[in-house]
Specification:
Order of helices and strands: EHEHEHEHHEHEHHEEEEEEHH
Bound molecules: S-adenosylmethionine, iron/sulfur cluster
CATH architecture: Alpha-Beta Barrel
Shape: globular
CATH topology: TIM Barrel
Distance between the termini: 34 Å
Oligomer: single chain
Number of domains: 1
Radius of gyration: 19 Å
Strand content: 15-25%
CATH class: Alpha Beta
Length: 340
């Protein structure tokens, strides 16, 4: 307890007054899909296994973060479910004092086998990436993924109570924009939270960015055209930067995440840990801070976390007029290496 009172923690507030309580951990850069906006067709140069943080090392960072006020953890990647013995990590993180919410972002392919065990181990909820409800388009976007497996993964997550189940859908002109009505229909029929996400100029595998990007205003217009009223709603647990809406008679909700057309950096509360142990305070900028030199020393890890926040930029540079120079698509890691 400090003089400000129990539970009040000033340790993870950055230079812009943003309180940070959320750590996203990339547990691997490997993946069983090859989404066109994320990885090259042959994958990207993989991080050598010896450079990937061990679970014990990840846990050290989680504990240091929790001591400073981190309350929410998300496991991501790459595809987190391809890393061996992930249940062990889930179980151990769920036990760290102070951690209140443990979630995962996954492509859902391996969920039919693992959802129930993950829930038992302490995972609370999942975000499942699904950019198309058409098998051929899904296969094209993921370079070979099987839509049926993801749909089975969504059902498995719902059955296991990994709720709220959120669906991440990156909107891309000419690829899936014509499916917005189908995704809105999913919200009408199932208790899922479909979050449309603006396509971001991340990594350099994405030669189609310029012609594919579509602002999320398109979702509002499509709903209006269909006569579906988007009513602002209380966000589901862990909604982060998503604006949430209900549809009349819908079982789920619609979320809009628009990092480009209307960025939400002023409310940013997150830090990222890459698979090979680098802390990033912003998805966009190149700045990275290796944790390895501080491993084995809780005090040094805490000091590093605070230093990373001290240097955190005010905003990303992806939006037009961001004041950060031209968009630099090649300036960043690919998303599978950053942990989306
Ligand atoms: N493999 C898991 C998955 O696909 O859910 C977790 C990692 S993936 C990098 C995390 C999220 O980042 C996914 O929802 C994916 O759609 C999103 N993502 C990847 N590249 C993106 C981009 N260029 N723009 C917007 N979202 C992107
Ligand atoms: Fe794999 Fe996820 Fe990247 Fe797709 S978005 S290639 S599923 S890491």
């Amino acid at each position: 307890m400090n003089f400000l009172g129990e539970g009040y923690n000033v340790a993870l507030i950055d230079a812009y007054g943003r309180k940070h309580d959320y750590l996203r951990i990339s547990v691997t850069d490997r993946c069983n899909l090859r989404c066109i906006y994320c990885m090259g067709a042959d994958g990207v140069k993989q991080i050598p296994p010896r450079e990937i943080l061990s679970y014990e090392e990840i846990l050290q960072v989680v504990k240091a973060g929790a001591a400073l006020g981190i309350r929410r953890i998300r496991l991501t990647g790459g595809e987190p479910l391809v890393r061996k013995d992930l249940l062990y990590l889930v179980r151990e993180i769920a036990r760290v004092p102070g951690i209140e919410d443990l979630a995962m972002t996954t492509n859902g392919i391996l969920l039919p086998r693992g959802a129930a065990e993950l829930k038992q181990a302490g995972l609370r909820r999942v975000n499942i990436s699904l950019d198309s409800l058409d098998a051929a388009v899904y296969s094209r976007i993921t370079r070979g993924g099987d839509l049926e497996q993801v749909l089975a993964g969504i059902e498995a997550a719902l059955a296991a109570g990994l709720a709220p189940v959120k669906i991440n859908t990156v909107l891309m002109k000419g690829l899936n924009h014509a499916e917005v009505p189908a995704f809105l229909n999913l919200v009408l029929e199932k208790p899922v939270h479909v979050r449309f996400i603006e396509y971001m100029p991340i990594g350099d595998h994405d030669r189609g960015y310029g012609r594919r990007y579509l602002p999320l205003e398109y979702i509002r217009k499509t709903a209006a055209r269909l006569g579906l009223e988007l009513t602002p709603a209380a966000p589901p647990v862990g909604a982060g930067p998503a604006e949430s809406f209900t549809l009349p008679g819908g079982k789920g909700t619609v979320g809009l995440i628009h990092p480009i057309s209307a960025h939400f950096c002023a409310g940013c509360n997150r830090l990222r840990l890459t698979a090979e142990g680098r802390l990033k305070s912003c998805l966009y900028w190149q700045d990275e801070h290796p944790v390895r030199p501080a491993l084995g020393d809780a005090g040094a890890l805490q000091a590093l976390l605070q230093e990373v926040l001290r240097l955190k930029p005010g905003r990303h540079g992806m939006s037009p007029g961001a004041g950060a120079g031209p968009v630099r698509p090649g300036a960043m890691r690919t998303m599978n290496k950053t942990g989306g």
